Amino acid sequence: MTIRGVLFDFSGTLLRVEPTEVWLRAVLDEAGVVLPDGETARLAAALEEAGALPGGSSPRALPADLREPWRERDRSAAHHRAVYTALARRVPLPRPELYDALYDRHMRPEAWRPYPDTAEVLGALRERGVPVAVVSNIGWDLRPVFRAHGLDRHVDAYVLSYEHGVQKPEPEIFRLACAALGVSPEEALMVGDDRHADAGAAALGCSVHLVDHLPCDRRPDGLRPVPALVDRSRAHGGRRAP
Question: Which NCBIfam families match (predicted)?
Fold first, then answer.
């Protein structure tokens, strides 16, 4: 089947959130909090272990009372904030207001960095006339991030879990994205980094291309095969791309 639309995951696919220690330092600096030598690094390591940074590492161990909320965290903005601030509160910080400040920081455009090939690949799809949707399990509006990084001109639709109350790998979120692009699931390619959430699009009939969830400097060209997959699907006379 010819690929006529491409769906992209956000975090770990198109952009990467800043490292946990950078995240924490930015918030401490804004709050005017000065810690003893080594304490910021220690707290950052504890926050990373807790999984407190959205888009960062998953919790290494979830307390029993957060296991179900964690599974459902992307269905609403309030739920997303509650879960991640609860994870952060597992780490004692010097001021109580820092927990909400940390959550607020991760939504700012400067907390995100596009992968080296993101703009190139999105631009190549635009040149080919292939519409793009961003499909994300998320609890906040990421559109300002795309605008700040000059990527919004390449995106035709955003399908965000918290706006629809559904989350990947549920088929409905991929169906909504395909409908937004005016393509059938069999004509769509889903590109993501999560073998469970993103690969769920295959159940609806989408092709799937997975990339590695790595820091930006360790994944310079993970997205570059995508335009070639589109071209190959066209060259093969409508046969489904591998």
Answer: HAD-SF-IA-v1 (TIGR01549), HAD-SF-IA-v3 (TIGR01509)
pLDDT digits (tens, 9 = 90+) for 114-149: 999 999 999 999 999 999 999 999 999 999 999 999
Q: Collapsing DSSP states into helix, strand and coil, what is residue 151? A: coil
Cα–Cα nearest to 44, from 64, 68, 19: 19
Residues 155 and 202 in one domain: yes
Quote the pTM value.
0.95
Q: Closest Cα partner for 111 from 99, 98, 102, 120? A: 102
Structural contact between residues 212 and 194, judged by C-beta atoms closer than 8 angstroms: no
User: Where on the phi/psi map is residue 94: left (φ > 0), alpha (ψ -120 to 50), or beta?
Assistant: alpha
Residue 158, φ and ψ in degrees, nearest 5? -120, 125
